[in-house]
Design brief:
Elements (H helix, E strand, L loop, with lengths): L1 H7 L5 E6 L7 E7 L2 E8 L7 H16 L17 E3 L2 E7 L13 H22 L12 H16 L6 H20 L12 E4 L8 E4 L2 E5 L6 E4 H13 L8 H15 L3 H16 L3 H7 L10 H13 L1 H9 L1
Length: 328
């Protein structure tokens, strides 16, 4: 540990290294040294854990920081590099940012406007620092494939003995989703509109945004930096920030957030409406939490399932109200 620390902070000694419990993909530690406190990140998520990909993320955050976006760029080592490879794993050291996470329930409408404006700023600044985004086709889920996935998951759920309340809810939601897909298969969206893609954070949600008081202090975890339809990231982020335990969205706050995002990003109402439809269809066909639990034997995301699965049902019923909150 001391050898790693001294690559970044000469003459420093490690005092403590405490693992952080939040986060599903990589590992983070609060590293206290004789010369300050830092965030040490170990990159282990296979799709984004190679040195070249991490270095690209680091260069992006350095440029965003120069434009005034609240980020915490990595510290360079004595050789100027920001990625250290130790034992076959990539590490990076960042300043420790004091702050707290806030979900939508903790944000006022004014705070929601600031959140939407911040994401719009991220998208416009990424366009400046990353250059033009290559055109990429963005299709939509095939309901026939989803029906097969539902049957496979149902078999796994029903094979569980003894069953627990989560298994009962999973079976209920799978049967419910099968019925909804049959009713709405004709609403499958076509490819995303040309020009809708751009560089996005890729994982913009409450655990990746630190607040100091009422103001955002740092956007962290840029592992999913990539090219996607920008307005779809705005919709996905709102779903995470503003979903309530019952599966409903706080639509007044969503409206405040979306209007601020549109102004900041220069996005039109039609673009947001199209994004709402595509993300709704994505959620109708998505079972990643159940796949983690029943196929990968990984239950870390289980607590998200009740609200997320209820949201899909509520959203289908209140489709027009949700669309209007984003695009109205």
């Amino acid at each position: 540990m001391n050898a790693l620390v001294r690559r970044y902070v000469p003459r420093a000694e490690a005092v403590s290294c405490e693992p952080l419990t939040q986060g599903l993909l990589n590992r983070g530690y609060r590293l206290t040294t004789t010369r300050g406190t830092f965030f040490l990140k170990q990159h282990v998520d296979a799709p984004t854990s190679d040195r070249a990909t991490i270095t690209r993320q680091h260069r992006a955050t350095e440029r965003l920081h120069a434009l005034g976006v609240p980020v915490a760029p990595p510290l360079p080592a004595v050789d100027g590099r920001t990625v250290a490879v130790v034992g076959g794993h990539c590490y990076a050291l960042h300043p420790w940012v004091e702050g707290r996470h806030r979900d939508g329930a903790q944000l006022t409408r004014g705070g929601s406007r600031r959140l939407g404006a911040l994401l719009g700023l991220v998208h416009t600044c990424l366009e400046r620092v990353m250059g033009g985004a290559p055109a990429e086709p963005h299709g939509s889920a095939d309901p026939e494939d989803t029906h097969r996935a539902i049957e496979e998951l149902l078999a796994l759920v029903r094979a569980r003995h003894p069953r627990d309340p989560f298994d009962e809810l999973a079976e209920q939601r799978l049967l419910e989703r099968r019925r909804l897909l049959a009713e709405h298969a004709h609403r499958r969206p076509g490819p995303a509109a040309p020009g809708s893609g751009g560089w996005v954070h890729g994982d913009f949600h409450p655990l990746n945004l630190l607040y100091r008081g009422a103001e955002p202090a740092a956007i962290v975890d840029w592992d999913r930096l990539g090219v996607q339809p920008r307005a779809e990231e705005a919709v996905r982020a709102a779903l995470i920030f503003y979903v309530q335990p019952t599966g409903r969205l706080d639509l007044p706050k969503v409206r405040a957030y979306a209007r601020a995002y549109r102004r900041s990003a220069g996005a039109g109402a039609a673009e947001l409406a199209a994004a709402v439809h595509r993300v709704w269809w994505e959620r109708l066909n998505d079972f990643w939490i159940l796949r983690w639990r029943y196929e990968l034997r990984d239950s870390r995301a289980d607590p998200q399932f009740p609200a997320a699965s209820a949201l899909t049902v509520w959203w289908t019923r209140e489709y027009e109200a949700v669309r209007d909150a984003f695009a109205g």
